[in-house]
Amino acid sequence: MSANMGSSLVIDAHVHLGDGLRAEELLEMMDETGVHKAVVFVTPFRWSLPDKDNYFNTNDYIAEAQQNCPDRLIGFACVNPHSHRAVAELHRCIDKLGLRGLKLHPENHCFTLDSLIGSEFMDTLQTLQRETGRKLPVLSHGMTTMGCTPDQFASLARRYPDVPIIMGHGAGFQNLYFPSIRPVKELHNLFADTAMTTVDDSRLIEVTRIVGAEKVIFGSDHWSREQKNLYGNFFFVLERAFPDPEQRRLILGGNIAKVLGLQG
The domain at 11-260 falls in which architecture? Predict the structure, then answer.
């Protein structure tokens, strides 16, 4: 099944590239199913600093993929904010590599989201937003550990209201915290993505009822070339869950396009 969205942008905002799924393989899947753009980043538990011996697991590969296909792929840096090289790597990824946002994984990197409040790392991200003149969204894994609960997302979003923050899996089957997802509705810069929704669309429907379709962002969580049929499953779920085409337009691309400053 392809995305029957007419001229509207369809953007997958949650894709892992690396040795499990290369950029060219992702583009083939996108072409087959009508996905126009994808936000891409490395698998967090394989994050490293630039090292050609570990090439597919670095931010350099994401930057190369974005450079090779700038109209289709939007690269996010993946950084462990508590690494001694975190600030330098964040600068390198945005200033030198031209990446467009940040992927965090509190579970794999052993930190809590609220521990970033008042940190040099977040101050640097804000400075980079001002210097580049564009928003640098933060997409963080969420919902499955105590380091990235909705309340911790909300605390971070309140402290940095000019930074768009996306709760990974917040509208997917890993949402374990109804009704504490409500801060997504209340905070203008906090969103929830649909990663892994194909398992249970009832949670997607309930989250959208609570926070509104304008706060839900389509993300597949692709990470392997073996997931060739996942887009079709997603579009089936979304069309069944949201018969209103305007809601589908927002979720499938309009919301993340606005966050990224693209035409949606």
Answer: Alpha-Beta Barrel (3.20)
